[in-house]
């Protein structure tokens, strides 16, 4: 049986080899994209890397969404979720139906609730700014409208928090981790650290 | 769109995916020149969103000109998103204004009945007029009016921009960029 230390070393050397192999290619980076991409990748290699990136971004926003101090984490959570869905949709044939359903399904199920919360956030921001631009005589009814939206959003927050906490505490992240480890793609250090972050989120 | 297999070269997968999304988006070309065609504009928004996300997925593989096209598609999506948001907002405001009108007309009917039965009281009428003054919905009408104006502005800007993209042959340019080893031969879809 290989000790965990030996396994770590093995992974490290695998990673080094990965760097050696891929560094010769022109590195095509985009500010907000995954690094060390090669046009020689297969669709599977590429898809799995994208999934890791967006999954990590999505999971890392959960605390911020639960805290709800500002609307950005929810927005980022939704954007990375949408991107993940796009990957699953585009590369649907690569993954087994079970895998697609397992991960794509959970993300899709979260969408109506997070969407409603995001719509309210956007509406509240808009109304808060709008009210400043209109004559005082017309403000009262808009203020009532705004207050209702704020109340509706506040009521939604506990449910949103519960749902996201349960996703974090369920086997979803662990299953994702196993799914990702099953693939035969060697990871870069950057990608390994993403997986580490996901593991920490679960811990 | 061909089914992407695990061993499909990523650039071929990109070509198939993006060209299919492009076709879908351009299939709305003939359906959007009527301001009231909400359904087509909504469907086109979804197609633009799908295209944008797929372009983003594959963007690191392509030259700067692709990034420029990505910006163009983002702009299209934003215009259509604004139009959609404003349509939804106007719908909500209409419902809300109607509920105010109904509330007040119900009270008015009660006054009418009371007059008919000759048991009307000055306080009841005064209270009704005060309520009308207090829950005046002019602010909501103003908001609805502003949203309608903004929607028209966005629609006009969107059509102008869409025409510009077509004039600049953006569809052809994108097909050329994503062409994998020159294997793609396509004609713009006609809707």
Largest interface: A-B, 35 and 33 residues
Low-confidence stretches of chain B: none
How many strands in all of chain A? 0
- Low-pLDDT stretches of chain A are 1-33
Number of helices of chain A: 8
Give the SSE order of chain A as H and E letters: HHHHHHHH
How far apart are the first and last residues' alpha carbons of chain B, in Å?
18 Å
**Structural class by secondary-structure content of chain A:** mainly alpha
Structural class of the secondary structure composition of chain B?
mainly alpha
Q: CATH-wise, what's the superfamily of chain A?
A: CHAD domain
Task: Please give the largest β-sheet of chain B.
Answer: none
Q: How much strand content do the residues of chain A show?
A: under 5%
What is the succession of H and E elements of chain B?
HHHHHH
Residue share in helix of chain A: over 70%
Quick summary of this structure?
The complex is a heterodimer of chains A (203) and B (191). Chain A has 203 residues and is mainly α. Chain A has helices spanning 4-23, 43-60, 62-67, 72-90, 97-133, 139-169, 172-182, 189-202.
């Amino acid at each position: 049986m290989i000790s965990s230390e030996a396994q770590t070393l093995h992974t490290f050397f695998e990673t080094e080899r990965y760097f050696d192999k891929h560094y010769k290619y022109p590195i095509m980076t985009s500010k907000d994209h995954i690094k060390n991409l090669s046009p020689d990748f297969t669709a599977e290699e590429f898809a799995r890397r994208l999934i890791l990136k967006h999954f990590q971004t999505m999971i890392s926003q959960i605390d911020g969404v639960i805290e709800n101090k500002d609307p950005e984490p929810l927005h980022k959570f939704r954007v990375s979720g949408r991107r993940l869905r796009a990957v699953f949709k585009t590369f649907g044939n690569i993954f087994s139906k079970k895998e697609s359903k397992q991960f794509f399904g959970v993300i899709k199920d979260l969408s109506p609730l997070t969407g409603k919360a995001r719509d309210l956030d956007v509406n509240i921001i808009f109304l808060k700014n709008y009210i400043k631009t209109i004559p005082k005589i017309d403000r009262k009814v808009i203020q009532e409208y705004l207050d209702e939206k704020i109340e509706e959003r506040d009521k939604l927050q506990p449910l949103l928090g519960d749902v996201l906490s349960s996703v974090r505490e369920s086997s979803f992240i662990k299953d994702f981790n196993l799914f990702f480890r099953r693939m035969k793609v060697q990871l870069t250090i950057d990608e390994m650290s993403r997986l580490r972050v996901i593991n920490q989120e679960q811990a | 769109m061909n089914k992407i297999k695990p061993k499909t070269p990523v650039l071929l997968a990109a070509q198939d995916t993006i060209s299919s999304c492009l076709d879908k988006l351009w299939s709305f070309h003939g359906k959007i020149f009527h301001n009231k065609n909400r359904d087509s504009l909504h469907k086109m928004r979804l197609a633009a969103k799908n295209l944008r996300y797929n372009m983003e997925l594959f963007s690191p593989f392509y030259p700067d000109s692709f990034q420029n096209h990505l910006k163009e598609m983002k702009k299209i999506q934003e215009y259509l998103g604004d139009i959609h948001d404003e349509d939804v907002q106007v719908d909500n405001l209409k419902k809300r204004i109607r509920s105010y009108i109904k509330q007040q007309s119900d009270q008015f009917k009660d006054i009418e009945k009371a007059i008919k039965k000759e048991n009307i009281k000055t306080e009841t009428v005064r209270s009704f007029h005060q309520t009308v003054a207090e829950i005046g919905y002019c602010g909501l009408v103003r908001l609805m009016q502003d949203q309608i104006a903004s929607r028209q502005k966005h629609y006009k800007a969107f059509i102008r921009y869409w025409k510009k993209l077509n004039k600049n042959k953006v569809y052809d340019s994108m097909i050329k960029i994503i062409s994998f080893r020159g294997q793609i031969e396509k004609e713009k879809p006609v809707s």
